[in-house]
Design brief:
Low-confidence stretches: 1-24
Radius of gyration: 24 Å
Distance between the termini: 79 Å
Number of helices: 15
Number of strands: 12
CATH superfamily of the largest domain: Glycosidases
CATH topology of the largest domain: TIM Barrel
Strand order of the largest sheet: 5-4-3-2-1-8-7-6
CATH class of the largest domain: Alpha Beta
Strand content: 5-15%
Number of domains: 2
Mean pLDDT: 94
Largest sheet: 8 strands, parallel
Length: 440
């Protein structure tokens, strides 16, 4: 920033938010930070408009599979990209942030690499971006990197214009254990630069106030910027749609954060119901009620993709509960006719799979409840219709065994897997078919 020295820039920056315990986080939005095909600009505009109306305030551009974001970070963006970015900024719905992931090939102390990083960021700042993310995640640990990343963050904070805010994601971003990397990093990162944390693991069923406070204790009292990997479905989770409401986050957790960024799914429109649920939670509202309002005609598809309530119904039906059998059959009938519910073409592989598996499940339920002679006439049909389902590319009705990145980091910042990384088969369809054959 011409005419200003680093001390003047620091004085001109927005006051640090994290000192006021009990205040709401300053960033409340989403980060397009998944691995997979990035969203289109039309999708970004649509999502930003919806989430602005729901009370969120920030969108951050950070798709890992944009080669100029990560692998080829030194290369400038072309004019069409910058024009689209400008239009998103000018749309005026959510504040637009931009993140870059240079860590794979950057020497943090190199003057040339720092100049290349600043040139990259000047492109987007000149187009109206007022929030920058320095992402140093998903890198192999090495001695001295904590200090190197801290000094790089210091330099970047001083190099950026005062009105542009900065956040950073460290190499070690999970758990609550003090590590050499974090002990080096924390004292060097400026007070007004939030540091991202994903919770105890990369993907979490629950995130609590106690966990956030434990991370803050490790980080010299700094409250975390929660990068919440929900409803994201990239990489080993790409066979699933996470359409349900935000679950497992303490009601008071926002008051213990220095910001919140949800990482959405590759399917932009399908991400909106869970993101609107998260927006309600951030505002102190009811995430379930907000989700019900947002999911609309896609409610049957959502339950079929994440059958939280169907498992108990299936248990009761297999046990011979007539009322449960009727309720389950009614749901399966509706699932057999379900559509995309306005979530668009991207979810249609799951719609087709739900319809097909619902038909097989109803047949198995019929064989389970019919007299034995009738059951023996029905089950041969299952021998033809059921096996092809088991090799499907998408997962519905509980899935047939799946992996999730429930990964943490140890004291050396190396990755470790938790038991919940593997979810055994819970397929409702398979259970009904198995029960039907067991009758014979």
């Amino acid at each position: 920033m011409p005419g200003c020295n680093p001390a003047q820039r620091a004085a001109a920056r927005p006051a640090c938010r994290r000192g006021r315990r009990g205040s709401v986080p300053g960033v409340q939005g989403i980060i397009e930070g998944f691995y997979g095909e990035p969203w289109s600009w039309d999708e970004r505009r649509s999502v930003c408009r919806e989430l602005a109306a729901a009370g969120m305030d920030t969108y951050v551009y950070a798709p890992k599979d944009d080669p100029l974001h990560r692998e080829r970070w030194r290369e400038p963006y072309d004019e069409p990209f910058l024009r689209d970015l400008s239009e998103l900024v000018d749309d005026g719905t959510l504040r637009v942030g931009f993140a870059v992931s240079p860590g794979l090939s950057m020497d943090p102390a190199s003057h040339g690499d720092r100049s290349a990083l600043m040139a990259k960021l000047e492109q987007v700042v000149d187009r109206g971006v007022t929030l920058v993310g320095l992402l140093l995640d998903d890198l192999p640990p090495a001695d001295g990197l904590g200090a190197a990343h801290g000094h790089l963050t210091q330099w970047l904070r001083d190099a950026l214009p005062a009105e542009v805010e900065l956040f950073m994601t460290p190499l070690h971003y999970t758990g609550t254990v003090a590590t050499p990397y974090l002990e080096q990093l924390a004292p060097l990162v400026p007070e007004d630069v939030p540091i991202a944390w994903t919770g105890m693991h990369v993907v979490n069923d629950t995130i609590t106030v106690a966990q956030a406070e434990a991370w803050a204790d490790v980080m010299d009292g700094r409250r975390p910027l929660l990068w919440d990997n929900t409803p994201v479905n990239d990489m080993i989770m790409s066979d699933r749609l996470f359409l349900g409401p935000l679950r497992g986050r303490d009601t008071e957790l926002p008051n213990h954060l220095d910001g919140y960024l949800a990482n959405p799914m590759v399917q932009a429109a399908a991400s909106l119901p869970p993101l609107r649920s998260a927006a309600a939670w951030l505002a102190g509202g009811d995430p379930l009620a907000a989700w019900k309002d947002a999911i609309g005609d896609a409610a049957v598809l959502a339950e079929a993709c994440e059958p939280h309530d169907l498992h108990a119904l299936c248990d009761r039906a297999i046990a011979g509960d007539g009322r449960a059998t009727a309720e389950l059959d009614d749901f399966l009938a509706r699932a057999g006719d379900c559509g995309d519910g306005g979530l668009g073409p991207a979810v249609r592989p799951w719609v087709r799979q739900v319809r097909t598996e619902a038909g097989v499940a109803r047949l198995a339920l019929q064989a389970l409840t019919a007299d034995l002679d009738e059951a023996r006439r029905i089950t041969p049909i299952l021998l033809v219709t059921w096996p092809p389902l088991r090799g499907a590319e998408v997962s519905v009705f509980g899935g047939r065994g799946a992996m999730r990145p429930v990964l943490g980091q140890d004291a050396a910042s190396e990755w470790t897997a938790a038991p919940a990384a593997w979810a055994p088969s819970r397929s409702i369809v398979d259970r009904l078919v198995t029960a039907a054959f067991a009758r014979l």
